[in-house]
Amino acid sequence: MDQSTDMSPAFIALIAVGVVALLALIWLIATFNRLVSTRQHMRESWADIDVELKRRYDLIPNLVAAVKGYAAHESSVLEQVVRLRNTAAANHGAAAEQAVDETALAIGLKQLFAVVENYPQLKADTQFLALQQELAITEDRLAAARRFFNANVREMNQLCDTFPSNFVASMFNVERGSYFELANDAERTAPRVAIEA
User: Fold this and answer.
1) Nearest residue to 135 (alpha-carbon basis) of 46, 78, 83, 62
2) Structure confidence by residue, pLDDT tens digits, 51-93
3) Which of the 8 DSSP states describes residue 173?
4) Pairwise CA distance, residues 77 & 151, whole Å
5) Exposed, middle or buried: residue 19 (CB in 10 Å: 0-12, 13-18, 19+)?
6) How far is CA 97 from its chain centroid?
7) 131 in Cβ contact with 63 (< 8 Å)
8) What is 9-188's CATH superfamily?
9) What is the pTM of this model?
């Protein structure tokens, strides 16, 4: 009898177990790498949001200074916007925590633009218009970055919640992400001032 074609059942079972273990190990590594990659995408997309937030924070003092030149007696609104800006800029917590401060800042900016409506000369001021345009562009970029970040958070959360990748996530203590969402749809739009012809 030829030894090369005669394999014992124990040897065949050992090979089968080895193949299953190898496939399980490959799946484990692939799932772990996907979790790590998604977490890195979340970090990168948060960095994009951070850049736009810093740009917004830099624009707000200039905007307040332009309004102050025309509406100095509206100091309570101006001071509130500066305070909200400083609070939002100082928050380096989770996305959900920072969204609370950003929502308050968006409401404060809406109040500032409501004040501007009472000053036609200010609405026609070229410096103010340029600052307002820069803020609108920044808000648009911020909205796009927020959508990208939230898509990455959604993917991470799906991986952490769905079977069987949730086993790998729990095994390696991979945490779910928190969304960066403003409080309601009205606050999600960039503040704008109508320009009268």
Assistant:
1) 62
2) 999 999 999 998 888 888 888 778 888 889 999 999 999 988 8
3) T
4) 35
5) exposed
6) 11
7) yes
8) LemA-like domain (1.20.1440.20)
9) 0.78
